[in-house]
Design goal:
The complex is a heterodimer. By secondary structure, chain A is mainly alpha-helical. Chain A is about 55% helix and about 10% strand. Chain A has a 3-stranded mixed β-sheet with strand order 2-1-3. In chain A, α3 crosses α5 and α5 runs antiparallel to α6. The termini of chain A are far apart. By secondary structure, chain B is of the alpha+beta class. Classes of the chains: A mainly alpha, B alpha+beta. The interface between A and B is large, with 49 and 59 residues.
């Protein structure tokens, strides 16, 4: 069932993007808005996402909706996340708010790969997390983690 | 079985691959130069190697820049700006922190669920919240979303009967727990696994235990109603019933007796007797772990050669006669993506080879689909080889033993790849540990026994 209907998505900074409805529906958040929005749902606001990020998100959705079985989908995904950390962070957040499972999966995995080599202290610094363990609790954790890790 | 293995002496030390050395300590990054940057871009090709990642992390965040993007002059300007940042020895760390400190906490779970299992244990000490994720419902759901394609292998070694060792085929590392998975003094051996949980059977008392080898979660199952100590084949499945996740464990004996345990009711039941279509005595292949496909458990039998299946949902048994390949020994069932496979040794005169067959469902015949590379098989020429299959889902681990040697190899059924497994060596020791038995399992941090 192909529809030639288009939807306009508006980002937080007022940029508008016209996309096929099928592509827009890849985002479950937009799907929900359209289904509950009534007749007047041709323009959807996405205030959590800036124009730059939204344009990338749409690029992802287009590829996955229009050619989901193509052989180069895997390499498309791999190249898609070869971006600045800032862009990656925004992509992850956008995919979460817009409820796009595939993109959330892809961006989270990429971020996980980025941080897996870090030490605990570096993680705390990066994410601005306070260490709320007492030294005794930390020692207890070390014992509980009955592992011998090479890392 | 252990006594038999204890009698054998392993003399040849054959290194299959070196362990990855620990990553270099955090160092001051070198001054950012164009030549460095290009060097790092090459390293991008191996993102799975932890030590490379550390190098990339320390020397700059160029990994994330799209190679060749934008005019060169733009990059140089960015470069110069970075070098100018006052005071900090690691300017990119500051920039990174600016981005990530605003990362929503909700998304932490999505990222953490996708970390390698071993890394998660390290990051538990970051803060109380991260530590409590193991028991968090939302994290459990998030973990369920992550598809882990490669199983780990839980093994018992001759040297370490209680705690054993675990092998991660992706990182090609052995992990050595310092505490036993189940707190019991008896010797227990892994017999089945499903959903990240492993089922153990105690040699003497015939008690069953279920545990998640990655966490402290374990359960001793209710005593069975049938108390006989003869040998059984054990299978395990997980399923979703009335909104609850649960697991079922089934044991089957040669005389046709069987029972099924359901974790939701915490009880053993005997759903019925064996129908007449199943020839008794049921000459089960005790060395082969059963496989589960679409809710049916399949067991290997002989006399007649073939397979018996049990539908976990309907409780019905079926028998399929499938002629065994010639000169076959030490064979076991395996499964990959719904396909039922057979792995076994084929010995003709003095030559031995490991072969893989796939069950042709229409004709009920085994069709050979692969065999171990000739070069490796030559090693077995003229020797009496015994083989056991330590993991039979998707990625098979095969232990090949003769009087003088013990080889461990893995076979990826989908990719048709044979790999040698690095020696199991406890840290700070040079002595190679000998894997006696084992089981594959898909590591799941949140699986509860």
């Amino acid at each position: 069932m192909t529809s030639s209907k288009t939807i306009v998505l508006r980002s937080s900074d007022g940029a508008t993007f016209e996309v096929d409805e099928a592509v827009a529906l890849h985002s479950l958040m937009i799907k929900h808005r359209i289904e509950t929005g009534g007749a007047d749902s041709t323009t959807i606001d996405v205030p959590e996402v800036t124009g730059n990020t939204l344009s990338k998100v749409i690029e992802y959705c287009k590829k996955h909706v229009e050619a989901p079985n193509s052989d180069d989908l895997k390499s498309f995904d791999t190249d898609f996340v070869k971006v600045d950390q800032a862009v990656l962070c925004h992509l992850a957040k956008a995919s979460y708010y817009m409820n796009i499972k595939g993109l959330l999966d892809l961006s989270s995995k990429t971020i996980a790969d980025m941080f897996k080599g870090k030490t605990v202290e570096q993680i705390r610094e990066t994410f601005h997390i306070k260490n709320d363990f007492t030294p005794e609790e930390e020692e207890e954790l070390r014992k509980e983690n009955s592992w011998n890790l090479f890392v | 079985m252990l006594r038999q293995l204890i009698g054998q002496v392993q003399e040849l030390i054959d290194l299959y691959g070196t362990h990855l050395p620990p990553p270099p300590p955090v160092i001051q990054p070198p001054p950012l130069r164009r030549s460095d940057r290009w060097c790092l871009l090459n390293i991008e090709d191996n993102p799975s190697e932890d030590e490379y990642y550390n190098l990339v992390m320390q020397a700059g965040k160029f990994k994330m820049l799209e190679p060749g993007k934008g005019p060169p002059s733009k990059r140089t300007r960015k470069d110069r700006t970075r070098e100018k940042l006052p005071g900090t020895s690691n300017p990119t760390e500051t920039m990174e922190s600016e981005i990530w400190k605003r990362f929503p906490e909700d998304l932490h779970e999505a990222v953490i669920a996708r970390l390698p299992v071993a890394t998660f244990f390290r990051f538990r000490s970051v803060c109380q919240k991260w530590n409590s994720l193991l028991t968090s419902n939302s994290f459990s759901i998030e973990c369920g979303q992550v598809v882990r394609t490669q199983p780990w292998f839980y093994t018992r070694t001759h040297e370490n009967v209680n705690t054993g060792a675990m092998y991660d085929p992706v990182s090609r590392k052995w992990h050595h727990p310092t505490a036993p998975a189940v707190p019991t003094k008896m010797i227990i051996l892994p017999v089945a696994s499903a959903g990240g949980l492993i089922c153990f059977l105690e040699i003497c008392n015939r008690s069953f235990y279920v545990c998640n080898p990655l966490t402290q979660s374990f359960r001793e199952l209710q005593a069975r109603s049938v108390k006989v100590w003869s040998r059984v084949v054990v299978g395990m499945t997980v399923n979703h019933k009335s909104g609850k996740m649960g697991y079922q464990i089934m044991w089957v004996r040669s005389d046709g007796e069987y029972e099924v345990y359901d974790s939701r009711t915490d009880k053993w039941t005997c759903p019925g007797g064996m129908p007449a279509c199943i020839k008794l005595p049921l000459s089960l292949n005790f060395k082969s772990q059963p496989v589960t496909v679409d809710g049916c458990m399949y067991f290997l039998r002989s006399d007649p050669d073939g397979i018996v299946s049990y539908n976990m949902e309907t409780g019905t048994w079926k028998q399929f006669t499938v002629p065994a390949p010639v000169h076959l020994s030490d064979h076991a069932l395996a499964e990959c993506g719904g396909r039922i496979m057979l792995v076994g040794l084929v010995s003709k005169n003095a030559a031995t080879c490991v072969c893989i067959w796939e069950l042709q469902k229409m004709s009920l015949l085994w069709k050979e689909v692969d065999r171990m590379p000739n070069v490796w098989c030559l090693e077995f020429y003229g020797k009496h080889i015994k083989m056991s299959c330590l993991g039979n889902r998707g990625l098979l681990m095969l232990s090949l033993r003769s009087k003088m040697m013990n080889r461990l190899v893995t076979y990826d059924v989908l990719k048709k790849e044979w790999s040698k497994v690095p020696n199991c060596v406890v840290p700070h020791s040079r002595k190679r540990q000998w894997v006696a038995c084992g089981m594959s399992f898909y590591p799941c941090l949140t699986a509860k026994a």
